[in-house]
Amino acid sequence: MSEYSAPTQFIDLAAQQKLIRPQLDAAIKKVLDHGQYIMGPEVKEFESQLREVYWSQACSYVCQWHRCTDTRFDGLG
Questions:
Q1: CA geometry: angle 43, 49, 52, nearest 5 deg
Q2: Which helix (H) or strand (E) segment is 21 a member of?
């Protein structure tokens, strides 16, 4: 017997999956139907969406850094 009385459940995956089960089933069926298991259209779509999110964030960080350094150097003289 373990020193702990019961396992700690951090995330209720079953409850989360229940909320999106129809979307999961549809996505799995789509991949099984077209058979492109590696680098299929869903991967390209995911990469495109990820690029949009992270590219805009990266640009935002660069702009913030640039403004910060401009302000700091302006204060020096």
A1: 140
A2: helix 13-34
Residue 51 has which token pair? 């690029």
Residues in the chain: 77
Q: What number of CA atoms fall less than 13 Å from residue 56's CA on the CB side?
A: 5
Three-state DSSP at 47 gives helix
The pTM score is 0.52
- Element of type H or E holding 76: helix 41-76
Closest by CA position to 73, among listed 65, 60, 62: 65
Q: What's the confidence (pLDDT) of residue 46?
A: 85
